[in-house]
Design a protein that fits this description.
It is a single chain. The protein is an alpha+beta fold and 162 residues long. The protein has one domain (6-157). The protein has 4 helices and 6 strands. Strands 1-6-5-4-3-2 form a 6-stranded antiparallel β-sheet, with helices on both faces. The longest helix has 21 residues, at 132-152. The relative contact order is 0.19.
């Protein structure tokens, strides 16, 4: 059981920040076999979910993802606009160390980042001393959000698996 947890934003606050007062309805991205294979390559482990919920309007998508830092999950939200990261925010940080990843001076590094063909970010993200595993977790989630945004625009990948 986690004794340390610092919630910074609720889902509603994150979505209001991303979309303003007119929040779009929730959508679903099904994790097909092909998507699961690429997700595992990005994360370094198999995905834990069969579907990912996200929010989308005509110009952007918002994703809330979890990834383990050192021992506990970090919950972060990512807003993608025109295929590039527009915003990254930490919603909940549960580790006892490394919480600096929630600070705006770290998170602003992700603005404008895109996904390269090798599924790496096209920007270098500076690390934080003492928060290496949290920084890596944030990077994996950022890459995954960009990947999911890309495939969410493909009609064939949005249907429920048979």
């Amino acid at each position: 059981m986690t004794l340390w947890a610092e919630p910074y934003l609720t889902t509603a606050q994150f979505l209001e920040n991303a979309f303003g007062a007119s929040q779009p309805k929730i959508e679903t991205l099904w994790i097909t076999k092909d998507v699961a294979v690429q997700t595992e390559k990005i994360l370094g482990h198999a995905p834990k979910q069969l579907r990912i919920r996200y929010w989308s309007n005509a110009s952007q998508t918002a994703w809330i993802l979890d990834e383990v830092g050192k021992e506990e999950p970090i919950t972060a939200g990512f807003v993608i606009q025109s295929g590039k990261l527009n915003q990254a925010m930490v919603l909940n940080y549960r580790e006892s160390r490394g919480g600096e990843v929630r600070h705006s001076n770290f998170l602003k590094q992700y603005q404008g980042a895109d996904l390269q063909k090798d599924y790496q970010l096209d920007k270098n993200i500076d690390g934080i001393s003492g928060a290496t595993l949290s920084v890596r977790a944030m990077g994996r989630m950022a890459r995954l959000a960009l990947y999911y945004d890309h495939i969410s625009h493909s009609e064939t990948l949005l249907t429920e698996p048979h």
